[in-house]
Amino acid sequence: MTTKxxxxxxxxxxxxxxxxxxxxxxxxxxxLCSNGSPDDTDDTVxxxxxxxxYLKIIVPWLQSGSIRSDDLELNDLYHLLVHANYLNIPxxxxxxxxxxxxxxxxxxxxxKIEFELITEPRxxxxxxxxxxxxxxxxxxxxxxxxxxxxxxxxxDWADHKRICKQISTLTKTMNKEGAHLSxxxxxxxxxxxxxxxxxxxxxxxxxxxxxxxxxxxxxILELADEKKQSFIYERALxxxxxxxxxxxxxxxxxxxxxxxxxxxxxRDEDCYNFLKWWGTIDPHGRYDWGDPPESKEGxxxxxxxxxxxxxxxxxxxMMELQVLAAFLWIRMRIVSRYRLMEAVEKQIKSAVLSxxxxxxCLLHILPSLEKIxxxxxxxxxxxxxxxxxxxxxxxxxxxxxKTFLPALINPEPLLSCQPPSAYSRGSSSExxxxxxxxxxxxxxxxxxxxxIKDYCGDNTDYDxxxxxxxxxxxxxxx
Length: 478
What we know:
By secondary structure, the chain is mainly α. The protein has helices at 17-20, 24-34, 52-64, 74-87, 90-107, 150-181, 192-195, 207-227, 230-246, 258-264, 268-280, 321-354, 362-374, 383-400, 404-409, 412-415, 428-444, 448-456; strands spanning 2-6, 12-16, 43-46, 137-138, 146-147, 184-185, 188-189, 422-423, 474-475. A hairpin with a 7-residue loop joins β4 and β5 (146-147). The longest helix is centred in the C-terminal third of the chain and has 34 residues, at 321-354. It is globular.
């Protein structure tokens, strides 16, 4: 059976009755219209509040569940939201709210907040013409790269072979050392991974394994930064998190590299929980992180459910550049969301004031829009508070290293230098390592460039002289 929907301007749209059940209002109208009669005659429901222009979008949505947003202006979205609300179509209302937020975000240059990841399986060959997915084959050497066919793998080999050989060689070393450690330690039978988890760096025999696994993680992370596929970042992160479990004191400095991986995976809460644990576990700076807990590979050993909206400078004394940078990116994302919500609210209120009373119900949709933009942090802080915290983090970073912020705006002079093998705090060598690690995050947040330019001013010149090392130098790699 079908029903005819009659628009305010008299145009008729024939819709199968089963599709009308997606709208509680239309389903009720249909019941009233048919009076419960089981006959097969078409009913007509008059929608005197909806113009045919909008029914031409609503009716296809009832059939497909999706909307083509390319040609929709903001005013169209406003009226569609009003109609979806009137017709009581929850799923359509959610889609339209997200489309409205996206459109306003692009207008206000707030559309880039999260790191742009490829989450669906995709052939590694950049010129592959397939749409992705399907039955992808994994490279037998590195066990990471994936291809849709042998031809793509052959074409990509020239680009892939260096990192492929690096990963496979380091993986073989790691597995060889690991096999030995799983059978004996100091000539006695036993499984070092079970008996000495947390104490690995204090046992010299484990260090070749730790260094090899660290090398595997670094090589995989290089590949992840090239391909932007989420599963590669997850693989690199898993290696580093396991090393932190095995080396409870983090003698290799892995805690400074992990936050950027969390952020590239858009796991802000995990990043914050991780950073806060390291920032509070040793308040007196004695390198005493307590006894390692009993654990197995994959266990989360850090804090949970911490408040991202709090000021991290209240609980961290360690002015480490990489730590402060990670806190800054988290804060910029929060500020971006609050600015976006402010823009959405202003846009909605302006539309309501400029139009007749038909758009007034948009004010009732604001909580739904706030939930989309701010998520669980809606109504828990303010834009001014978050911007103040962001400014304090910028000041802390400048105090920590004067080169880092201007080098994000103007990286070429710094990155054209020879990569440092070690660095001291506050130096251009430290800034080099931090800029290389953070440029991806910097470019992934729309407001980042303007925020840092406003803070630094017009002068983005800086000293590029690298360290002449003394006893306070840190190695760039363990």
